[in-house]
Amino acid sequence: MTPRQLFLQLGADRRRQVHLALCEDALLTWIDYVRGRRTPLRYRDSVVGMRHHVDVELPADALRSARAGVDLADIGNRYLEPITALQDDDLTFPDPVEFAYYAIYNCFSKYARGDDISDWLIVNQSLSVHHHSEVASRLTSAIADIDPTAG
């Protein structure tokens, strides 16, 4: 059985545990990226030309909210501008960083806001921060590490 098949056979609570674990790992990619920068992250939106600073704490705050199952720090509103900027190509990150950013956003959207987000999308995005040769083993490990008493 493939790691994907194993994941899709899990109950909702156990899939949530895997999502949170994979997004915690993806968060490390984000943290490494922002810590390695010498200047603040900024971008200019193409609609009105306004300059924006990237809230580097947003992904960590979003993951905390996903764990809690509620928007703890106005995460939904704080994500509006940067998600739009990413989709408009006003804001760009290296691919692994962008995948981490979206994975955490989608995990937040699913578990803190109750949005209908595909379970596999979160897995796919969070694993896309890694080299393809690591993907299967990382998913297998995340599944093996979940609490067996959950869903």
Explained architecture:
This protein is mainly alpha-helical and 151 residues long. The protein is built from seven helices and two strands; from the N terminus they run H-H-E-E-H-H-H-H-H. The chain has helices spanning 3-8, 12-35, 58-68, 75-87, 95-111, 119-127, 135-144; strands at 42-44, 51-53. A hairpin with a 6-residue loop joins strand 1 (42-44) and strand 2 (51-53). The mean pLDDT is 93.
The succession of helices and strands, N to C, reads: HHEEHHHHH
Number of helices: 7
Measured on Cα atoms, how large is the radius of gyration?
16 Å
Largest sheet: 2 strands, antiparallel
User: What is the share of helical residues?
Assistant: 55-70%
The geometry reads as globular
Q: How is the quaternary structure best described?
A: single chain
Report the count of strand segments. Answer: 2
Strand arrangement within the widest β-sheet reads 1-2
Q: Which percent band covers the strand fraction?
A: under 5%
Compute the separation of the termini in Å. Answer: 20 Å
Structural class: mainly alpha
Low-confidence regions: none
Mean pLDDT metric: 93
Summarize it:
With 151 residues, this protein is mostly helical. It is 60% helix and 4% strand. The mean pLDDT is 93.
